[in-house]
Amino acid sequence: MRFSSMRLTILVSLCFGVPHHCSFVQMVEAAAVEPLKVLIVAGGCCHDYATQTKLLKKGIEERINASVEVIYNPDTSTEARFDIYESDGWARDFDVVIHDECSANVSERPYVDRILNAHRNGVPAVNLHCAMHSYRWGNFQEPVADGADNSGWYEMIGLQSSRHGPQSPIDVTYSDHVIAEGLSAWKTVNEELYNNVRVYDSAHIVASGRQMQMPRKKKNKPVNPDVKPTEVEAVVAWTNEFGTKKTRIFSTSLGHNNDTVGDDKYLALICRGILWSTHKLTDSGEPVVGYSK
Predict the structure, then answer these.
(1) pTM for this predicted structure
(2) Which label site among 20, 58, 175, 187 has the fewest CB atoms less than 10 Å from its CB?
(3) How many domains does the chain have?
(4) How confident is the model over 87-143, as pLDDT tens digits?
(5) What residue numbers bound the domain in which 155 lies?
(6) What is the DSSP letter of 2?
(7) Does residue 220 lie within any of the structural domains?
């Protein structure tokens, strides 16, 4: 006979007594909980997705009750596509999908609509970093009109971004959102601060970032030694509700470098975003019984 680690804990507790801070009923409830089925879709331009998918899978499974499946495309272009998105029911086996693509030049409407329809129909999403700059076409440098041909991806995310500045550390501070409960302000390593072309009314800010940015060096022009850096601020983590079913969406534009993705503070934010999006975070900010480790 084989026992799960949770069931073994219950048996040991029965023999030696249950700690006062953890009731036997809670332990039984936790043992009956199935792990969240998490899908990470990753690949495309400009990032070390081979390493980052491993960091994410390990970090998530160590922190919350989740089983993570990774679909990784080693294509390093901005046209990376994923076979799973070719079928209408691509997300039916998962509780939440983590979009970690960098596919800026994939603009085929039926393909993008299949991705979005899964979320319109109730599958939560967690969007990381370059997912914000994926599936874009038209004049995405300016605020896109509601319902426009190229608006769907931004309406799902809840924020429109078009570019980022040079890499330097970002000071991250949190709002009073339930996802931020227990999280402390921190400074990243060198990172990219994504701009905010538009923050949708349906979005709620989880974290903001401040970064000192030097002007970009212009080709064939000398650097002005007297130029000083300027402070730039942007929303770096937020929630959204998408479609008529108000599907929960969590996003963060942080996560360019491996050191950020592997940072405990970053992984804690991602895990709390997963729990919130799947309704596994209580109003007081505690994980539902059975979903924390």
Answers:
(1) 0.89
(2) 20
(3) 1
(4) 999 999 999 999 999 999 999 999 999 999 999 999 999 999 999 999 999 999 999
(5) 32-165+195-207+234-277
(6) -
(7) no
